[in-house]
Write a structure and sequence with these properties.
This protein has about 650 residues and is α/β, with parallel strands linked by helices. It has three domains: about 400 residues, 3-Layer(aba) Sandwich (Peroxisomal Thiolase, Chain A, domain 1), CATH 3.40.47.10; about 60 residues, Alpha-Beta Plaits, CATH 3.30.70.3290; about 110 residues, 3-Layer(aba) Sandwich (Malonyl-Coenzyme A Acyl Carrier Protein, domain 2), CATH 3.40.366.10. About 30% of the residues lie in helices and about 20% in strands. The strands form seven sheets. Strands 5, 6, 9, 10, 11, 12, 13, 14, 15, 17, 19 and 20 form a twelve-stranded mixed beta sheet that branches. Helix 3 packs across helix 6 and helix 9 runs parallel beside helix 10. InterPro entries: Ac_transferase_dom_sf, Acyl_transferase_dom, Acyl_Trfase/lysoPLipase, Ketoacyl_synth_C, Ketoacyl_synth_N, PKS_assoc, PKS_Beta-ketoAc_synthase_dom, PKS_NRPS_Biosynth_Enz. One of its GO terms (biological process) is fatty acid biosynthetic process.
Length: about 650
């Protein structure tokens, strides 16, 4: 999981540091089962997963996937730290960092982010006065959007101007209220930096994203509702990529006092999900950003969104704060019917859990009635709230993050604070210790205080093995950052994970062209224990012209090109030339791979080999979008020059060399 931690400093001298690890994936399995009416749910080809898979003109299906994730959650600056804490069963609720809680009659503990005081305004093009009036939620979301894009293998520079959507699930802006209290200090910048309805617009502006852009304020269900809307937007063709975020910061005690007056908060700041002692939730901060794409365009896939559905319920006994069992049950039935998926295939549910006996009972009974009906084993459930507290508008996306970790690692992290079970029917089992995840389907349930309910079905992804190469193969890693220290940190990471070719692939994909905001550029050659590294600060005011020089006769040497045949693009180009020469009794492949020291005593062999290798080198350079400003060729090198200029094909080039 790739997490880019934007440098946090008060000026522009920040850096980008990454923390990446790739976890094992679960294998796919097909489903085929019958409803009570005899109809078929799903099929053995893996098609038919509801409206969230669109059929392409060739008849194949295009799914919506989560391709990038980044987060700031209590005691967790990134997904790697979150995984560590969850798997260890850590309680991330700590002493409150925002105010003195005792004076307000509030719990002394809560879940808070480690540091929200610093922001690299210049990196995101934010003027200093606007940065001073910008809600910290928005500051962090800008950083996490950059991280999520890089985590998905997308260079932020390459997505500028694209039809990419932004959907933000948020609650209140307590910074806005603080900045508006004293009229003498009010400025015109506060509405631009603190209005929650403009959070999505500010992110779209910063990254030059041209797709739909809006925020959703639906209480605790806002984050997962943002994901739901993004999936629908991609499915309908409104965009190919979407940034989804949920944000919540607890900046002042007034909101907590209000919730305490509603009897929604626990007395000690802890969340006791599914526990008979549940008396309310503990408030927490959290911000999560995800990148969603069509599967065909994604360079990384964490999981596939099989279906996501939202609805708003009325409530039992006219109680605004509790879900309605019958409506919840019908809603879940409709969600799985749309997905054409037998609910019994769900292996794990990350539940909403309001941390009260009545609300948890209603939610669990509805889930059991729909999902457990035909299950032979108890359904595993849990809630990340027991570990990190209730992150409110972010809670749905925090739950998805936990499910992704479970799918990546094949292990469900344990629930905390589960001592006095509130569930007795035997159909559901709360995960109270690390438990193997058996199966490929998981679900996330999220309630909002006003009655909104979102249910999202996720399917794990079997990671392709093509990026795992032999350990002895040399690999090149390239990247650029704001500071030399940042680049050294990234290269240290690459060296410590030198066998992980998937990591190197994603980093190289996001390195992008030279950018004056990231002046430190370097490379590392990974070769067992003997790594080669170079870092330079590049300052270019005017781009210097690039010329391709094609050498002629005399530059050939035995075995030239043999090691380059390990590179797919080079080998593909050489084999294309080889096929053109075969009818004439010439084997270019043998010439390169099997030729002895005398192979180039023949002038014809020399001409052919030089021309073919120049063709392959041009193909490699063009594939990296390296285009020359001019071309010069000498002797047989004029053939390579003609190929690069588009005057002739690869086949014509090598045949002309015969």
């Amino acid at each position: 999981m790739l997490n880019i931690d934007s440098g946090k400093c008060d000026d522009s001298s920040s850096e980008i540091v990454s923390h990446i690890s790739i976890f094992p994936r679960l294998n796919f399995s097909t489903i085929c089962c019958k409803c009570e009416d005899g109809s078929i749910l799903g099929n053995s080809l893996g098609k038919g997963f509801g409206e969230h898979a669109r059929e392409r003109p060739d008849g194949s299906m295009d799914y919506v996937v989560i391709s990038g994730v980044s987060c700031r959650l209590p005691e967790s600056e990134n997904m790697e730290e979150l995984k560590k804490h969850l798997m260890r069963g850590d309680n991330m609720i700590t002493e409150n960092r925002r105010w003195e809680p005792v004076s307000h009659g509030l719990p002394s503990k809560s879940g808070t982010l480690v540091d929200i005081s610093k922001f690299d305004a210049a990196f995101f093009g934010v003027p200093p006065k606007l940065a001073d009036s910008m809600d910290p939620q928005l500051r962090v979301m800008l950083e996490l959007t950059h991280e999520a894009l890089v985590d998905s293998g997308i260079s932020p520079a390459t997505i500028r101007g694209s039809n990419t959507a932004v959907y933000i699930g948020c609650g209140m802006s307590e910074a806005w209220e603080a900045l508006s209290t004293d009229n003498s200090n009010v400025t015109g910048y506060s509405p631009l930096g603190c209005t929650t309805s403009m959070f999505a617009n500010r992110i779209s502006f910063a990254f030059d994203l041209r797709g739909p852009s809006y925020g959703l304020r639906n209480g605790c269900g806002s984050g997962l509702l943002a994901l739901d809307r993004a999936v629908s937007s991609i499915r309908l063709g409104d965009c190919d990529t979407a940034i989804v975020a949920g944000c919540n910061l607890c900046m002042k005690p007034a909101t907590s006092v209000q919730l305490a007056e509603m009897n929604l908060l626990s007395l000690d700041g802890q969340c006791r999900c599914f526990d008979g002692r549940g008396e309310g939730f503990g408030r927490s901060e959290g911000i999560v950003v995800m990148c969603l794409q069509k599967k065909a365009k994604a360079k990384r896939v964490y999981c596939t969104v099989i279906n996501s559905k939202s609805a708003t319920f009325t409530t039992d006994n006219n109680n605004f704060n509790f879900p309605n069992f019958e409506e919840e049950r019908q809603f879940l039935q409709e969600t799985y019917r749309e997905a054409r998926l037998d609910p019994s295939h769900i292996s794990y549910v990350e539940a909403s859990s309001s941390c009260t006996k009545m609300s948890d009972t209603i939610e669990m009974n509805a889930i059991a009635d729909v999902i457990c009906k035909n299950k032979s084993k108890p359904l595993l459930i849990g809630s990340v709230k027991s570990n990190i507290g209730h992150t409110e508008a972010t809670s749905g996306l925090a739950a998805v993050s936990k499910v992704i970790i479970a799918m990546e690692d094949g292990v469900i992290p344990p629930n905390l604070n589960y001592i006095m079970p509130n569930i007795q029917n035997g159909q559901i089992k709360v995960v109270s210790e690390r438990t193997r995840l058996n199966g490929e389907y998981c679900a996330v349930n999220s309630f909002g205080l006003g009655g909104v309910n979102v249910h999202t079905i996720l399917k794990s992804y079997d990671k392709d093995k093509k990026y795992h190469f032999a350990n002895e193969k040399k690999r090149l890693g390239i990247y650029s950052t704001r500071t030399k220290q940042g680049l050294e940190s990234i290269f240290h990471l690459l060296k410590s994970h030198h066998k992980d070719s998937y990591l190197h692939y994603l980093l190289n994909e996001t390195s992008g062209p030279w950018n004056k905001q990231l002046p430190y550029r370097g490379y590392v050659v990974l070769n067992g224990q003997n790594h080669i590294q170079e870092i330079q600060k590049i300052e270019i005011e005017n781009q210097r012209p690039l010329w391709f020089i094609f050498s002629g006769m005399g530059t050939q040497w035995p075995k030239m090109g043999r090691q380059m045949m390990q590179i797919d693009m080079f080998r593909t180009s050489i084999m294309k030339c080889d096929r053109a020469l075969r009818p004439h009794g010439i084997s270019l492949y043998d010439m390169i791979m099997e030729g002895d020291v005398n192979v180039f005593d023949s002038v014809t062999n020399s001409f052919i080999a030089i021309a073919a290798i120049q063709v392959a080198l041009v193909d490699m350079l063009f594939s990296m979008n390296i285009q020359p400003d001019g071309l010069v060729g000498h002797s047989v090198g004029e053939l390579g020059c003609g190929y690069a200029d588009g005057c002739q094909t690869a086949e014509e080039t090598v045949l002309a060399a015969c």
